[in-house]
């Protein structure tokens, strides 16, 4: 075995994290954990994993569930396409009759790419499939001093090939867990404690003074700004929501009536706003109140600048075209984005 892998596994045996999905060989539970941990820190994903497995202990239970319930359990975790893909893939697995075993078969499941397939196959089946994620890119680029871009096809091929060479073929699961934990706990993105690192004497980046610049990325994420004005509508004991459709953010989650404009709306702007008149035209609007202005909600490629208004209609208002009327007390039964949940709490808080 190479010296790098030997040291890494030895470090892991002393410092590795004890996590519930590491105590099972069940490919379903491993798949759920890896999906939750995409773009999510372990500290945040831990409780979600426990709740998800408690409610859906096996792939059949997940396949039989209604999508709204799946999304409700995922609420607040973000990147909701992960939950939709899990649900769709669970139905696919049940139709196949068993969880796939080989990496190429696992990758045919919706939402499963190279990394997740490698994780499942190494952790559940002991196959020598090297995982390559952000932690692995960082550890390998620094240790070997690689100046390849990690976000290009050529760079990804280079790192994948190196990872395949380094993995301990006899202990692939332990090696994969080791390198991921090392990246998450020791070789962290910013200000790592290199003096306490087991590789301080052999790390190329430390010797060259390039720890802070590696790994390299060629493309910068383009971030756009959007301006949302949500209308929390009250008509007696009722409110109005709708399910988001299409391919935009938060698809299949529920939300208040929304006005998206080119800039932030003020309370005094609403009466003359064409979108507002189109939405509430013909209804008896009794009052308009700005509950919370300019909340900044940061997503991976977008920054949402959102405000929440409370719109009170006459108690007799029974319909808002395009929306469903629900009892305000039933709001928490519907899966919603964290931003909507926050606004709902603010409205309730202002009424107490």
TrEMBL record:
Cofactor note: Binds 1 [4Fe-4S] cluster.
Keywords: 4Fe-4S, DNA damage, DNA repair, Glycosidase, Hydrolase, Iron, Iron-sulfur, Metal-binding
GO biological process: base-excision repair; mismatch repair
Sequence ranges assigned to domain HhH-GPD in this UniProt record: 36-185
EC number: 3.2.2.31
Keyword field contains Hydrolase: yes
Superkingdom classification of source: Bacteria
Co-factor(s): [4Fe-4S] cluster
PANTHER family: ADENINE DNA GLYCOSYLASE
Entry function: Adenine glycosylase active on G-A mispairs. MutY also corrects error-prone DNA synthesis past GO lesions which are due to the oxidatively damaged form of guanine: 7,8-dihydro-8-oxoguanine (8-oxo-dGTP).
NCBIfam families to which the protein is assigned, alphabetical: mutY
Protein name: Adenine DNA glycosylase
Native source organism of the sequence: Candidatus Phocaeicola excrementipullorum
Gene: mutY
């Amino acid at each position: 075995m190479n010296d790098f892998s030997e040291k890494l596994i030895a470090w892991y045996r002393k410092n590795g994290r004890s996590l519930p999905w590491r105590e099972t060989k069940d490919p379903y539970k491993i798949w759920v954990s890896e999906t939750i941990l995409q773009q999510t820190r372990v500290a945040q994903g831990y409780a979600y994993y426990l709740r998800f497995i408690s409610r859906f202990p096996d792939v059949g239970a997940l396949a039989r569930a209604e999508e709204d319930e799946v999304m409700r359990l995922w609420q607040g975790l973000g990147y909701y396409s992960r939950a939709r893909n899990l649900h769709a893939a669970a139905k696919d697995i049940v139709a196949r009759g068993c969880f796939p075993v080989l990496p190429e078969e696992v990758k045919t499941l919706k939402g499963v790419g190279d990394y997740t397939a490698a994780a499942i196959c190494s952790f559940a089946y002991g196959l020598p499939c090297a995982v390559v994620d952000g932690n692995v890119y960082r550890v390998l680029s620094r240790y070997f001093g690689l100046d390849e871009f990690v976000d290009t096809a050529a760079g990804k091929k280079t790192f994948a090939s190196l990872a395949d060479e380094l993995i301990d073929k006899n202990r692939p699961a332990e090696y994969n867990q080791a390198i991921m934990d090392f990246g998450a706990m020791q070789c962290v993105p910013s200000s790592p404690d290199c003096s306490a690192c087991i590789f301080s004497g052999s790390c190329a980046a430390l010797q060259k003074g390039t720890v802070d610049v590696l790994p390299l990325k060629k493309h910068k994420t383009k971030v756009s700004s959007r301006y949302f004005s949500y209308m929390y509508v009250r008509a007696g004991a009722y409110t109005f929501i709708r399910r988001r459709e299409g391919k935009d953010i938060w698809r299949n989650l529920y939300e208040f009536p929304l006005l998206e404009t080119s800039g932030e709306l003020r309370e005094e702007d609403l009466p003359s706003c064409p979108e507002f008149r189109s939405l509430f035209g013909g209804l008896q609007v009794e009052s308009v109140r700005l509950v919370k202005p300019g909340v900044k909600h940061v997503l991976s490629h977008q920054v949402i600048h959102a405000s929440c208004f409370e719109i009170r209609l006459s108690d007799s208002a029974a319909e808002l075209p395009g929306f469903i009327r629900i009892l305000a007390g039933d709001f928490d039964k519907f899966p919603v984005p964290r931003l909507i949940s926050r606004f709902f709490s603010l409205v309730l808080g202002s009424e107490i």
